[in-house]
Amino acid sequence: MTEPAAIEIEAEWVTITSGPAAASDPLSGQGQGQDQDQGQEDSGAVPLRCWWARPVGQAPRAVVIVLPEVFGVNGWVRSVADRLAAAGCGALALNTMARTAPELELDYDAAGLELGRHHRDAVTAAGCLGDLAASVAWLRAQPDLAGVPIGCVGFCFGGHLALLAATLPAIRATCAFYGARVSTFRPGGGPPSLELVPQIPGRLWCFCGDQDPLIPLEEIAAIRAALTAANCGVPAESEAARHRLLLAPGAGHGYMCEARADFSAAAARCGWTAMLSLFGAMAGDVPSP
Hints:
CATH class: Alpha Beta
CATH topology: Rossmann fold
Number of strands: 8
Helix content: 25-40%
Order of helices and strands: EHEEHEHHEHEEHEH
Strand content: 15-25%
Distance between the termini: 12 Å
Largest sheet: 8 strands, mixed
Structural class: alpha/beta
Number of domains: 1
Radius of gyration: 18 Å
C-alpha cells in the first residue's frame, strides 16, 4: 500500500458505545473536554466520539484504528486518519480518554500537555481494550467492511495503547510509534505492557527515535529483547522479522507530527512508508515485508 495521487475521501464524527467505565476522574472547571454525564456512568454506557474517514465510492482495502497522543482526537490525529483514507484505508480515530474527557481535543502546548496527562492517568488497560472491542464491533457492522482486515496505529500514549490493541484477535497488524514506559508500566496497574508481546497474534512494529528522552536506551533494549524473543530469535531490527523495532536516527519524541517541535520530515517520511507497507501486506496488496 502506497500513497497514490489523492483518492477522494469522506470523513465525519461518529459515536460508538462502549461498556462500563473502568475509571472516572473528571476535572472540574479546567480546560477542554471535561463535562461528564453522571447518568452515563450509572447506565454503564460510554459514548466514544470518533473520527471516521474512508475513501469515497469504494470499499476500503483495510481498516486502521488510530490511537491518539495525550492531546486527544485533534486536528493532527484527524489528518492521520484522512491520510490513511486517501491511501485506500478506512480509518477510525478513537478517543481513548472518553471516560473523563468525552471531547478531548488539545493544543500542543504546556497547558494541553498537563491536561492531557491528567486524563491519561485515568485510563486503564481494561477500559481501553473494551473500547477497542466496541470499535471493532462497530467496524464489523458496517455494510461493506465484513472481512476487511483491521490494523492499528498509535502515537505517544496511543503508541503504548497500540501494544495492548495488538493482543486482540481481530487486530492483524499494529504500528506503535514512540509508546513510552511499555517496559515499566501498564495503564491502570499490573505487569508492564511489554510482557504481553508473546500474546500478540498478528504483527507488531515498534517505532522509536534514538534521541527520544521519554524512551531511554534501556527501554529500547527491553523492546528489542521482547520482540526478538517473540520472533523465536530473529532480530527485531531484521526486515524479515515478524515483530520489528524501527529506530529513527537523530529523531526525538513526536517526530511524526508536523505540529510538534520534534517533527522530523525525513523520519516521518520513513515512518509513513513503513506503516503503509505493513498495512499493505495486511490487506494483501504487497508481499509480506
